[in-house]
What we know:
By secondary structure, this protein is mainly alpha-helical. The chain has a single domain (59-287), classed as MetI-like (MetI-like fold). Helix content is 74%, strand content 1%. The chain has 12 helices and 2 strands; from the N terminus they run H-E-E-H-H-H-H-H-H-H-H-H-H-H. The protein has helices spanning 2-36, 55-61, 64-95, 102-114, 117-127, 134-141, 156-181, 186-193, 198-227, 230-235, 247-257, 261-287; strands at 38-39, 50-51. A two-stranded antiparallel ribbon has the order 1-2. The longest helix has 35 residues, at 2-36. The termini are far apart.
Amino acid sequence: xxxxxxxxxxxxxxxxxxxxxxxxxxxxxxxxxxxxxxxxxxxxxxxxxxxxxxxxxxxxxxxxxxxxxxxxxxxxxxxxxxxxxxxxxxxxxxxxxxxxxxxxxxxxxxxxxxxxxxxxxxxxxxxxxxxxxxxxxxxxxxxxxxxxxxxxxxxxxxxxxxxxxxxxxxxxxxxxxxxxxxxxxxxxxxxxxxxxxxxxxxxxxxxxxxxxxxxxxxxxxxxxxxxxxxxxxxxxxxxxxxxxxxxxxxxxxxxxxxxxxxxxxxxxxxxxxxxxxxxxxxxxxxxx
Length: 288
């Protein structure tokens, strides 16, 4: 009796986790796929849903605005990930060099990550405002030319990248700091005895030992950047001239602003595919 309970005990504790996984991940995924294969909108949502197969996906990939949103997403995600990872790695490495009050500095750097994305978006909207923004005011006081940070189609996406970088970099600092603390310091002591410089030690020891942390961090911040739409929605609303409408914001607007729920669900399936592809590429890099 007792041996039977011991064998069943791991499955007993695993059941709540599986239930949560099913309710919050598996069921919504298949429900989203089901909606994408039917004609569902705010007009027809209370009627019997008509099965239309892949029509929503055909409409999606025949929409030039969707291709534009993918291009904008590539710029937004590429810039955000590069800045978040680069600056986060630099700060975490510098604070790991026995800097005085490094704990206090880490706490200060993590503050942006504790703030709501909505608050961060409104703050940067005020900073980048063309007429009343602090940034243009400072540029004018310095005798420089102001810029249309949120109104120029060629500049607006990079304003969003800066806002997302400020908001997301603390996670990279926190994550990579944990990775640096997991490295045995005696490795560096042996390297110094062998005549290795700090730069060579960083390249040939720190980075290889940090690879699992780096890959997981890149997977997470890339997926978050692909799915992120709070900053774009609040700061620009996707404008001007569709210049800041990422794929996630495109999906949101199709489903909740235009009422095309099935088309928004189809865009969500495409985003899931993009996220899985990115994770697969990163994991292949980790295996190498």
